[in-house]
Write a structure and sequence with these properties.
This protein is an alpha/beta fold and 242 residues long. The chain contains seven helices and 14 strands. α6 runs parallel beside α7.
Length: 242
């Protein structure tokens, strides 16, 4: 299975989990045509779309999927805008869903007062995959779950965040810092099962890619593949390394 990055950051976030026969879309912050290009325009392969929260960089293009008859699974606050559509699906945290052959377990994440979900995603091909973005801090430990793959926001480095910037308070209350990621996400959830870590939604002004890579690799070592998400990036997320 492949994780494909369509877009990441404030301009738009969309990712694809693609097996031989299915594609699950994570967030709809990028144009559907860009997602289709990444899966060779095989629209029938899309089994569904998961939405984390209502902000435009994650939800702007929901209607494009609904218009094509593709089911979009979303928190209540997003669903209320699209419930007239036959293909809009309201989901709740702490419940379990199947989208095609993907098992989905949503969980709540704090994002400056906005309803926001993370997802634990299960599939026979990739094992257990966690997607978390736009969070101040994590609310759950997955150590006992022994996750194989992690796609998580690292929005800013504390020393680069400017107190004078207009969005400073929102950054602190709605996004994950490098230190919090390392101490509260990585160290808490890292087991020998972990195989890939992909870091997404980096700030253009308050994140140092090289610093982030170096500090994360210091924790996980050479055994774990670490990537910074960029459009066009593809990461193998198979359950087994062979």
């Amino acid at each position: 299975m492949l994780l494909k990055v369509i877009g990441t950051g404030s301009k738009g976030n969309s990712y694809v989990l693609e097996s031989e026969n299915e594609a699950l879309i994570l967030d709809a912050g990028c144009r559907m045509k860009d997602v289709l290009k990444a899966i060779d325009y095989n629209v029938s392969k899309i089994c569904g779309v998961l939405i984390t929260h209502e902000h435009g960089d994650h939800a702007k293009y929901i209607q494009q999927y609904l218009d094509c008859g593709i089911s979009v699974y979303m928190p209540k606050s997003v669903y209320e805008r699209f419930e007239i559509s036959t293909f809009a699906r309201k989901i709740h945290y702490n419940e379990f869903y199947y989208i095609g052959h993907f098992g989905i377990s949503p969980f709540s994440l704090p994002h400056d007062g906005t309803e926001n979900y993370g997802f634990c995603i299960y599939h026979l091909e990739n094992g257990k995959f966690i997607y978390m973005t736009d969070l101040e801090y994590p609310t759950m430990s997955f150590r006992k779950t022994k996750i194989e793959h992690l796609l998580c926001e690292v929005n800013y480095c504390e020393e680069l965040a400017e107190r004078e910037e207009a969005q400073y308070t929102h950054r602190l209350r709605g996004h994950l810092s490098l230190n919090t990621f390392i101490e509260k996400v990585l160290k808490v959830n890292m087991t020998p099962a972990l195989r890939t870590v992909t870091l997404c939604h980096l700030s253009d002004t308050a994140a140092d890619e090289q610093m982030i890579l170096e500090r994360v690799k210091e924790v996980v070592g050479d055994r774990v593949t670490v990537n910074i998400a960029k459009p066009g990036l593809q990461v193998e997320i198979n359950k087994y390394p062979f």
